[in-house]
Give the backbone structure.
Amino acid sequence: MALHRLLAVLLRQLYATRRSLDRLTDIFYWPTIDLCIWGLTSAYFQKFALAEGNIFVTIVSGLILWIILYMASNSIAITILADLWDRNLMNVLVSPLSWTEWLTGNVMLSLIKVVLSFLFTMGLTLLLFKISLFSTMALFNTSHCTTHSHQLVDCVYYNRINFALWHAYSNISMGTRSCCVTFFGNLLSA
Amino acid sequence: MPSSTNFAVEVNSLTKRFGTFEAVKGISFNVPKGKIVGFLGPNGAGKTTTIQMLLGLLIPSSGTISYFGKDLATHRQEIMEKVNFSSTYISMPWRLTIKECLTYTSFLYKINNRRKRVEEVIETFRLQDLQHKEVAQLSEGQRTRLMLAKGFVNHPEVLLLDEPTASMDPESAQYIRDFIQSYRKEHDISILFTSHNMPEVEDICDDVIFINGGEVIAHDTPENLARKLDIARVSLTVADGLKRVAAICEKDKLPYTVNGRYIKIDLKEKAIPDFLKKLLEKGIDYTEISIDKPNLEDFFLAVTGKNNHGTA
């Protein structure tokens, strides 16, 4: 093993890292976000969920929110990045398509994916855990809440706002950031 | 898109700066309707930057671009309906089949009977047998044909072609060149054509714009550009008297190279008769002679300073 060759491998990565916002965020940005998300989540569990005595519904409903928000931001990012990865972006941009149309189309596709994912997740939750968000919403509207359904709705609509906001923030920021970095990076290098 | 101007594309004082670096320095040129104009230059000359501005992908630092007499900056959507671009260096979504790619592209434009148009371009570019293959499974040459099919799908009035026959075998390349020329005649479209294949440019282009260092340094027909070089190359296979030929060249300060019994001399076209007369007077016996007139490639090399055979 030669030291100079090890140094070559290190240098290759260090040169790339110091000019790459992506790699720098891996070091500083994501640890910060993760700490905030899980810190707030832990604080929430400690303060409310454990006290209410139904951690199961709390986690499952939080997970559904997580999936929806993740799917929303991720699918927007992926559909946009797919054109870059396929070297197809230039074809799109030299057509009469406007930015607004392009983004709207991608958002529409993402919404379809989110709805499909949401329905699938809800079905699976119903199948596996006998928890239905639709029935809990109906119960909520008619004020006939069971303990479970009330907690689920409560969780979705009220108590998880902090939690959901953080997820939304982290996911959307991840999506837009990676989109912007890759897009402008590719544009500049083109 | 009716227009009063005779030019399909008009570029005026176009400049693009990246920070302090000026990639394109106030260039102006026109692409007349129904003409194929070559856009040539060495690597880093500013061709790609100019093309990206012509396509609206980059915003010029200053200057204007007009298509059919309309400003690109204010009529982009309307203009892009009648403009298309094809390059060997871009691709289509890899998991889509050829037919899917062209179908989805056809929806980006206002096209009557999209299905028929997609079938037409598939047939024109000889993609029938490949139409259900994914882009990822195509060879470079097949992908280039797909990109050309995409470029023609909207019946463009202006087409920007970036090395359209790169990666193609000679037969396919000739077929594409013939198609482009016949399509131009039939539909009177204007084409801005970039290529590093000089014989191809000479063959297909009516005019050539030569760009170097971000500036247009020549705009003329390929023949006239080649004629700007007043140097021809005389090649001789000398049976007897090679040293005497070399002595004549040195005396007259003519650049020459010797390879065995073979000598190449660069001299002005007008000086050739006198040179041959001297060979006769010195009793030089040569078995073969060829005189190569300068071509576009010689012009390219001369203006980029990559040879010393002539001055442009």
User: Anything to note?
Assistant: Chain B is about 35% helix and 30% strand. Confidence is low (pLDDT under 50) at residues 308-312 of chain B. The first strand of chain B starts at residue 7 and ends at 18. The two ends of chain B are 39 Å apart (CA to CA).
